[in-house]
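Hi there,

I know you've been waiting on this one. I reran it after we fixed the sequence typo, so this is the corrected version. Both the input and the resulting structure follow.
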Amino acid sequence: NLLEIMAGLFADAMAIDEDQRFLTGTGGGTPLGVLGLRSGAEETPVEGVGSIVSGAAAALTADGLIDLVYSVDSQYRDGAVLALAKNTQRDIRKFKDGDGRYMWQPGLQAGQPAALLGYPIYESEAMPAIAANKFPLIFGDWGNGYIIADRVGMSVERVTDTTTTGQNQVALFARRRLGGQAVAPWAFSAQKVSA
């Protein structure tokens, strides 16, 4: 069933795009992401979202991560998660203590999500990389702090009008209409890498 296969491929592509928009969308015809404001081409937190400086030039620090977690009020930490790119997670896993031991402790239960400082980690390549003046980590309670308005569920239609598609051609139109924005920006905080 070609229509079913294509609908699945459209859904996968749209999910990746939505992930990016909820994190870094500008609100101009797209959802407004938590890092939705622009200072030039740079993603910066929207109004009300706190930011904590990492404490090291062009790098993250263990102390900065702890400060990030405790910058969000306790009522939002219970449902909070960390959003970061895979390379950011890789770099955090390399943190070592004074004796050269890795600070990252993998989970012991199969099927449990990775955690950092006791909070689940969600990887997204839409997050900025670690670099001076960037925001490579968002910590917050998405369930209570961000709202997604799904106006029209995804629809996929086959176009049969040959004046649109041409002879012996098939066209499929996929449609999805949604929005989103932080409704409780104080439930989030972003880690800013020091300059």
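Quick highlight: Strands lie at 37-39, 42-44, 50-57, 81-84, 115-116, 119-123, 137-140, 146-159, 171-182, 188-194.

Best,
R. S.
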